[in-house]
Amino acid sequence: MAFTPSVPGPISADPPGTPTGLLLTQSWLDLAFLHWAADPADVAPLLPTGTVPDTLHGRTYIGLVSFRMHRVGWFRLPGIPYLGTFPETNVRLYSVDTHGRRGVVFRSLDASRLIPVAVARAAFRLPYLWSRMSVERTGDTFTYTSRRRWPGPRGASSRIELRVGGRLEEPSELEHFLTARWGMHSTFFGQQMYLPNAHPRWALHHADLVECTEDLVTAAGLPAPAGDPVSVLYSPGVPVSFGRPARPGGIPTP
């Protein structure tokens, strides 16, 4: 059933507060943010019940985000150095719910560790996929590669190469809209779920896209991106904490 969401909360570069009941800690490092504008009508059917596309000046966005997940830890335990550390690439959309909470919706999450992928899929119903991945740095250039192994579509891949420039001293409204996200919308055993997070303000950098060859977006059920991304950003990363949702929800990512 269609609904009209509450007035969305403000776009804020800082978290609205500290999540209650610490659930997870982790760090996101060496992030590449690529975004294409999209028609909200094209992505609305792909969002969980109880959410609609979050928009800025009438447009929503499809994100392709590659990074290094570092030392995922449960509760207040130390982060796991091997199983909790791996490259990841996700395809994400932007959402707002009946309470006006802005969030992200993940259409796919490729990761290079099989055990975390299997746990996230089986226990938490998150769309993780096992892939062969790497993140390499040469000077100011980062290269992110991914090729899917399981469950499929097998062979779906991406290769992103970007050259990092200077830091953005005052990110634009769009840059905050795309990166300052303080929760994830999902469905857990048929119930709507919102998982809050908090982290320091992003250090965002200009980036020049050298190469982007990918079919992860279409493999996630979205229209193929038209033309070059409208936004290309890099961040060295942030430490992140997650509070407990109304229902448990698995391993979140940026």
Class computed from helices, strands and strand pairing: mainly beta
CATH class equals: Mainly Beta
Give the rounded overall mean pLDDT. 90
List SSEs in N-to-C order.
EHEEEEHEEEHEEEHE
| Main beta sheet | 9 strands, mixed, barrel
Number of strands: 12
Question: What is the strand content?
Answer: over 45%
The Cα radius of gyration reads: 17 Å
Oligomeric nature of the chains: single chain
Give the terminus-to-terminus CA distance: 29 Å
Helix content: 10-25%
- The CATH topology name reads Acetoacetate decarboxylase-like
Domain tally: 1
CATH architecture: Beta Barrel
Strand order of the largest sheet: 1-3-4-5-6-7-8-11-12
Number of helices: 4
At the fourth level of CATH, the homologous superfamily is Acetoacetate decarboxylase-like
The stretches of 5 or more residues where confidence is low (pLDDT under 50) are: 246-250
Using the alpha-carbon principal axes, give the shape.
globular
Helices and strands, with pairings:
Layout: E1 22-38, H1 40-43, E2 51-53, E3 60-74, E4 86-97, E5 102-111, H2 114-124, E6 128-138, E7 141-150, E8 157-167, H3 173-179, E9 183-188, E10 191-198, E11 205-214, H4 216-219, E12 231-243
Parallel strand pairs: 5-6
Antiparallel strand pairs: 1-3, 1-12, 2-4, 3-4, 4-5, 6-7, 7-8, 8-11, 9-10, 10-12, 11-12
InterPro entries: ADC_dom_sf, DUF2071
Pfam families: DUF2071
Organism: Streptomyces camponoticapitis
